[in-house]
């Protein structure tokens, strides 16, 4: 999906909601546990319930990997089931030396490798340019680079101030955002910025005025949709705000999909309000 | 495997060789391609040929992941086949927010999750403490944290100098090494230091005098075993030096395992010389 197609979807659906398919078999409603593939059955119901309200789906790969080979099959089926007009994110946080990152890129982008063809993958920046470039070699595919994450540990290294350089003092996450923009245009590069990091969001938006930001941390992690929208929205939308647990586990009963839809609907309606204020 | 057991293995085998099982189906000897599971057949032959010469095996997970569910089955079989007295490393470079890192830890450490129980996993430090601690919660299992990697991109962020703090100026990779030592003892924590980074190895050994260092980059990537050994060895051994391509693909013919053994033997003999100089 291209930048302008994603932007169009946002204004058509009046939503920049990304549903995080962090499906934990231990948390599934009990009536699903006898299914052949309970994870896929659950995801299918969640997708059916939310596809009109969300512009993106983001399975976190850890949840599938932890199920062994069967988990990868659930992931393949889930990806196949996501409607064409939704942007897909493999939240894998991969990154390795060049020839190995090339294999991770094949895993998530090349249908003939592992049976998966996501629009994008999340990548960790620590290993630098040659760990990221192999993902960008796939035309039309996106890298979503970790910048300032939503978790407490983001303070340990991401917020460390670097020595004064040509650009003055900057934190590591700012150097990541600046440097990565020399590797790719906003047509292939997004950044992860946690919803809990609203103090820095304004400044990040200045550093990356045209890049989409993937913002996790609304809901269970406590980030504010209002703040994120006010500081992050652009004329193109420019945001994908992820909610996972608050949607997936809104109910543990047979009404789980209906309740997931209610949660998604509430977020979408708030998003529609914010979108109306920028165009 | 404990610190002292690993150290004992090194002196018994007179080797600190780690064989990187970066098995690429596209590079296998042609006579293996008709096997049901050519990757496992290849790995089995490599392990048989090198098990007396190596103290550790390190499958890079990207190579298996890129084969989809079948790749994870090859990985399970490979891990099961590695002898008990060898240390096993899931080279996965994972790291995510706490509840997700917990799932990655389950994947690689908990046999009942994905059918895998490695001794250790490589972890990326960018997301900080709560992305690493869930791995350390597994008693007797190890985190091998990326510090200064072997690839050119290591200059982009790892070598960035931080502002002067209580410890004076330091590069990001030094901050990673110092900070991580507040999370775990050398009984559970190793660092990845590329063999191409010998200028910094002496200083890293001072920062982490007792931690094992996992050193990739000898062989195809051009690092020097002599330099690494001279600067990195400790009284406990303290090093695992990885070679992958130079061993796996020493020959593309039916003699591949024999040639792999020759390559491993040559490295082991050099290592024995270095070990004799420290005890």
UniProtKB/TrEMBL annotation, chains A, B:
Pathway(s): Pyrimidine metabolism; UMP biosynthesis via de novo pathway; UMP from orotate: step 2/2
Domain Orotidine 5'-phosphate decarboxylase: 16-260
Catalysed conversion reaction: orotidine 5'-phosphate + H(+) = UMP + CO2
Signal peptide: none
A single GO BP: 'de novo' UMP biosynthetic process
Active site: 93
Residue ranges of coiled coil: none
Enzyme Commission designation: 4.1.1.23
GO MF term list: orotidine-5'-phosphate decarboxylase activity
Entry keyword set: Decarboxylase, Lyase, Pyrimidine biosynthesis
InterPro entries named among the record's database cross-references: Aldolase_TIM, OMPdecase_type-2, OMPdeCOase_dom, RibuloseP-bd_barrel
Pfam families reported in the protein's UniProt record: OMPdecase
Family: Belongs to the OMP decarboxylase family. Type 2 subfamily.
Name of the molecule in the record: Orotidine 5'-phosphate decarboxylase
The species this protein was found in: Spirosoma radiotolerans
Biological classification of the source: Bacteria, Pseudomonadati, Bacteroidota, Cytophagia, Cytophagales
